[in-house]
Design goal:
Elements: E1 4-5, E2 17-18, E3 35-36, H1 38-41, E4 61-66, E5 72-77, E6 85-90, E7 98-102, E8 108-114, E9 120-125, E10 141-144, E11 152-155, E12 163-164, E13 167-168, E14 177-181, E15 193-202, E16 205-215, E17 221-223, E18 232-237, E19 243-250, E20 253-258, E21 267-273, E22 280-284, E23 290-296, E24 301-308, E25 313-314, E26 320-321, E27 329-332, E28 342-346, E29 350-354, H2 357-369, E30 374-380, E31 388-395, E32 398-406, E33 411-417, E34 429-436, E35 442-449, E36 459-465, H3 480-487, E37 491-495, H4 505-509, H5 518-532, E38 536-545, H6 547-558, E39 566-569, H7 575-580, H8 591-596, H9 598-601, H10 609-614, E40 628-633, H11 642-653, E41 659-663, H12 673-691
Length: 696
């Protein structure tokens, strides 16, 4: 593997758009789909508003995976029904048809994988219940044949066993077991086992995970003989299902342990504080290589390297760097015993750099056939003359479509659209800009530009602050809430304020203990920049969920001159309560997190009491003057409902009651279509009242 630097894609350009087949799933096209021009689908008259329900529908096609031989394709889809089921297509058949292999009336298939060509495993989620249901059920695990035969329950979803005539007739494993890895197809081996882990909980967190082998035909388990280090909470396996890396967490310290091929004993590679690991594992291969990320340069961007076991540090120079971004991605593997085919990363957009010459040629073919899009390839017999490829093609304006391609015949087959009734020509473009914050720090800012607005015509703006806050918020892909706001005529400004990850460790650490302070300045600076550029008008509101909801409230406290209104949902209103908890509040934040991590990231409730009070929306509620829409999930354990209730009561007493809505079945995110639609409609009306948009 050689050294690579990654180019950045030209996100935000008006790409040529692909006309995706609109026929029902798996009615295969006889020839390749051809691109359609925007002019062919445009209308001389102004189109009606896109119904908001389209933005918040569940995906019609969730995932698709080729079997190890490449002769079969499994797809999780809701086509033809209201629930997500699993179908399999025999790609070698003259007239391929979708065969339903698993479907439920009370649950949806969420994740699945092939165990050889003749067995699948899958887990469930109930998309017809709110996200609050997740605390009362588990994903479970099932196995089934590719023709729908031999359905077997391996791990229960519920907290109690299945009883018949008062007796336990359920011999499956308890709910607290999770699928850890599915080994790749081994040469000459009939695959029947996967690796699962038994989760041991303590203090609202996973205390340890104990792996074991599980036979997907009999349901029997056997030991992995790992002699695991105490407190192992994460595992990394090679393609054969052999554990190579164990990460432990004990008393606020984390350590990485390694067990190479042919070794029986674990050796510790490094130990550190939870927030200061010198490197992180990314992948292992079957020859004993460990790939890790570590930080380089003044801004400490993470890079990908092999680990040097003799020196105990990542090798120099790095294998992969992504200038301006942290390395985010992984190695692309094909089959057991093989080396990596390439590296998939995300800079401003996702891209793959292939080491294999055959895959390089295939990427060129896919990108030429589907221009201006991210074309993610997965393959069987990768790089060979008879390779079969599954292409997931998407863009900022299109949720995506799935295609099947045969190299030998050069035949494209359209599998289906990820979502229905989404016209890319009417969607907004997404672009990443780099600006300077008021103190000179580099500040990435995502813009979702509504269709129809032109340079020199500033649009009313919604500053959308991402949650976390220690995550990357923006991506060059279709995102429902941003697209919904843009469809209503708003410029959506999404800053990657300091404290966000993905843009260097220095950017991340610059946000430590800066809630409501320089983090908030970054949010304001993004709006001021857009206004100075003539992109945003002086009509602006601020919105966000979780930390983004907190930032919304603090924006109204600190910068009332910038925002005409605020929309905050599942928002932290009292940082002290978030940090310290209370005996009368049920939440899911562990004592370990409150002791070892949150004091560094947010503040110490005793030592930093004055700072936390000064940046508490609840304590500073008298400074919130602008109209406010508050929404909470009644089953939220991350930010319990009391956060909203106490701020609502304070504002009501001050004579400025917010608009208020709660959702009984939802937790810290909205999952029900009905919830998303109801909330979006409330946001649409609220913003229309205070930003007075004439029309898109």
């Amino acid at each position: 593997m050689s050294f690579f630097q990654f180019k950045h894609l030209g996100s935000g350009k008006v790409w040529g758009l692909l006309g995706v087949a609109t026929a029902a799933l798996l009615v295969f096209a006889a020839t390749a789909a051809q691109p359609a021009t925007a002019a062919a689908e445009s209308s001389a008259s102004t189109p009606a508003l896109i119904p908001l329900e389209r933005f918040f529908q569940h995906q019609a096609v969730l995932d698709a995976k080729l079997s190890p031989s490449g002769k079969k394709l499994a797809v999780s889809t809701s086509r033809g029904g209201t629930r997500v089921g699993l179908v399999v297509i025999d790609l070698a058949a003259a007239n391929p048809e979708a065969v339903s292999v698993a479907a439920f009336t009370d649950a949806d298939i969420s994740q699945f994988d092939w165990v050889g060509d003749n067995r699948l495993v899958f887990s469930l989620v109930d998309l017809e219940t709110g996200s609050g249901e997740d605390r009362r059920s588990a994903p479970g695990l099932y196995a089934v044949g590719p023709d729908g035969s031999e359905l077997l329950l391996l791990v229960r979803r519920q907290w109690k066993p299945f009883l018949v005539d008062g007796r336990n007739r359920d011999h499956s494993l308890e709910w607290n077991h999770r699928l850890l890895t599915v080994p790749l197809q081994q040469e000459g081996v009939n695959p029947e086992e996967v690796v699962i882990g038994k989760l041991i909980f303590a203090d609202n967190k996973i205390e340890s995970i104990a792996p074991m082998w599980l036979n997907v035909r009999s349901g029997r388990t056997r030991s992995t003989d790992l002699h695991a280090p105490s407190g192992t909470v994460d595992w990394m396996f090679d393609s054969k299902g052999q554990a190579r890396v164990a990460r432990t967490v004990v008393k606020g310290r984390t350590a990485l342990h390694w067990r190479g091929p042919g070794e029986t004993q674990w050796r510790q590679l490094v130990e550190s504080d939870l927030l200061d690991p010198p490197f992180l594992p990314v992948a292992v291969d079957d020859t004993g290589n460990l790939y890790v990320t570590s930080d380089e340069g003044p801004e400490r961007f993470s890079v990908l390297s092999r680990f040097d076991f003799e020196k105990g540090v990542p090798q120099k120079p790095a294998l992969v760097t992504t200038p301006g971004f942290d390395f985010t991605g992984g190695m692309v593997m094909d089959r057991a015993g093989s080396q990596a085919l390439g590296v998939r990363v995300e800079t401003d957009a996702e891209q793959t750099v292939w080491f294999d010459e055959g895959m390089k040629r295939m990427q060129v073919v896919a990108d030429a056939h589907l221009p201006g899009r991210v074309n993610r390839l997965s393959c069987r017999r990768c790089g060979a003359d008879d390779m079969v490829v599954l292409v997931r093609s998407f863009s900022d304006r299109d949720p995506g479509s799935l295609y099947h391609y045969e190299v030998a015949t050069k035949r494209w087959r359209a599998i289906g659209n990820v979502m229905d009734d989404i016209d890319p020509n009417r969607m907004a473009t997404v672009d990443l800009h780099r600006i300077k914050a008021r103190d000179g720090r580099d500040l990435p800012v995502w813009l979702t530009q509504p269709a129809g607005f032109k340079p020199g015509q500033p649009a009313p703006a919604v500053v959308l602050v991402h949650g976390g806050p220690w995550v990357r918020g923006g991506h060059w892909k279709w995102q429902p809430f941003e697209q919904f706001l843009a469809s209503r005529g708003y410029l959506v400004i999404s800053p990657e304020f300091r404290g966000s990850t993905g843009y260097g460790d220095a950017h991340y650490r610059a946000g430590w203990k800066q809630w409501g302070q320089t983090m908030q300045d970054d949010v304001a600076d993004a709006l001021l920049w857009a206004q100075k550029q003539g992109l945003a008008s002086d009509k602006a509101c601020i919105a966000g969920a979780s930390y983004g909801g907190y930032s919304t409230l603090m924006g109204l406290v600190r910068n009332p001159e910038l925002y005409r209104c605020g929309v905050a949902w599942v928002a932290v209103t009292d940082p002290a309560l978030f940090l310290d908890g209370a005996w009368w509040v049920d939440d899911d934040i562990s004592a370990s997190g409150r002791r070892y991590q949150l004091p560094q990231l947010v503040g110490d409730v005793v030592k930093d009491a004055d700072m936390l009070t000064a940046n508490s929306p609840l304590a500073q509620f008298k400074r919130i003057k602008a109209p406010l829409l508050l929404a909470f999930g009644e089953s939220d354990l991350r930010v319990p409902l009391v956060h909203g209730e106490r701020l609502r009561a304070a504002l009501h007493e001050a004579g400025r009651p917010p608009e208020w809505v709660t959702y009984s079945d939802e937790g810290h995110s909205w999952r029900l279509v009905s919830t998303n639609v109801d909330f979006a409609r409330r946001v649409e009306i609220f913003l229309g009242q205070h930003l007075k948009v004439d029309g898109p």
